[in-house]
Design a protein that fits this description.
Layout: H1 2-9, E1 12-22, E2 30-38, E3 40-45, E4 54-64, E5 83-84, E6 90-94, E7 109-119, E8 125-133, E9 136-139, E10 145-155, E11 158-162, E12 167-168, E13 172-178, E14 181-186, E15 189-190, E16 194-200, E17 203-208, E18 211-212, E19 216-222, E20 225-230, E21 233-234, E22 238-246, E23 249-255, E24 263-271, E25 274-280, E26 285-295, E27 298-304, E28 314-315, E29 324-334, E30 337-343
Length: about 350
């Protein structure tokens, strides 16, 4: 009883805020390594001219029983060790201290940590960001160049929002152990491929008027995969692997312009449906779908320009004569396949 009374009597919180600045002449590529054991990391670009190459703002709060009168250093390493910019690569590493079994302030605590990173639009960055527990978000401005992007969370969502004329010069990697991956891109030039993975969660990937110079690898253990493309251009032949152990795969392709190169791929789920909507409005583009099910059916809808058949493959009438094509193998162990095709 005394322990409980003491706990509530010393209930409280620790709140701290810090700002870190990286001021230097920019190199051809500035590499930033950002990591936190716990907390949300939000990366944005500046809206006005700034003298620094990067700014990191940290707001943290620890609340709970037995916390009153404590300092943040009872829970985190000292802030003087979080930010290192004297030698490249510039890095931010915010670590929590392990909870001591004999310290009750570690038994009943909660964290609220927000880390805001501001970048310059005229600098080329290579960004590697990791969170142990927390969400990650990166939002670009128009016309920025990124050398590379790697975003990884142990437990949390990963979100990437790419604005018009963004360029990514190496492969893009988005990963989370438990959480969703959301990517929205418009007018982006992916000079290489896109890798997205979650252990338990949903992948939502959207391309609009983008250029892709590599492959797409999107997979989840338990969850759905949703991929939508509109007027994509492919600078090389692109291979897509869309895969889930247990979940649904939805693919929507709208092609109103030339592709330049072909797309092939495998779309696979262990238990779940595959739902595809395909539309092209240009005679130089065609599509073919080959479906296989363990338990289920392959359902074909000829909205326009496809050969209605009950056998494989289900292809557009101009597949053999078109200049470029989408060509997919579809496979589900337990579930149905739906393909709605429209081709000019």
């Amino acid at each position: 009883m005394g322990f409980i009374i003491t706990g509530f009597a010393t209930s409280g919180s620790v709140e701290e805020s810090y700002s870190f600045y990286y001021e230097s002449s920019p190199s051809a590529v500035e590499t930033l390594s950002l990591s936190a054991d716990i907390g949300a990391i939000d990366i944005k670009y500046n809206t006005s001219a700034t003298p620094y190459l990067a700014k990191v703002d940290v707001d943290l709060k620890v609340s709970g029983l037995f916390v009153a009168g404590r300092k943040y250093t009872a829970f985190f390493t000292p802030y003087t060790g979080w930010w290192q910019n004297s030698t490249p690569p510039t890095s931010f590493d915010m670590k929590i201290l392990p909870g001591a079994w004999f310290d009750p302030s570690h038994w009943f605590k909660s964290y609220n940590v927000d880390i805001m990173v501001t970048l310059r639009t005229d600098v080329v960055y290579n960004i590697d960001v990791t969170a142990g527990t927390g969400s990650l978000k990166l939002t670009t401005s128009d016309d920025v160049i990124l050398d590379g992007v790697s975003m990884k969370s142990g437990t949390g969502n990963v979100e990437l929002d790419l604005s018009n004329n963004t360029q990514i010069l190496t492969e893009l990697a988005l990963e989370t152990g438990t959480g969703n991956v959301n990517m929205f891109s418009e007018g982006t030039n992916f000079t290489h491929g896109v890798f997205a993975e979650t252990g338990t969660g949903t992948l939502d990937i959207n391309f609009t008027d983008c250029i892709l110079g590599g492959d797409i690898d999107a997979s989840t253990g338990t969850g759905n995969v949703n991929l939508k493309t509109y007027n994509m251009e492919y600078s090389v032949t692109s291979y897509w692997l869309l895969e889930t152990g247990t979940g649904k795969i939805t693919l929507v392709i709208t092609q109103d312009a030339g592709m330049t190169s072909n797309v092939t791929g495998d779309i696979k789920t262990g238990t779940g449906n595959i739902d595809i909507t395909y539309i092209d409005t240009i005679s130089t583009v065609g599509a073919r779908f080959y479906g296989a099910t363990g338990t289920g059916s392959f359902n074909r809808i000829n909205t326009q320009g496809f050969t209605q058949t009950s056998s494989n493959p289900f292809d557009s009438d101009d597949f053999l004569t078109s200049t470029t094509n989408y060509d997919f193998n579809l496979d589900t162990g337990t579930g149905n396949i739906f393909v709605d095709g429209s081709s000019v």
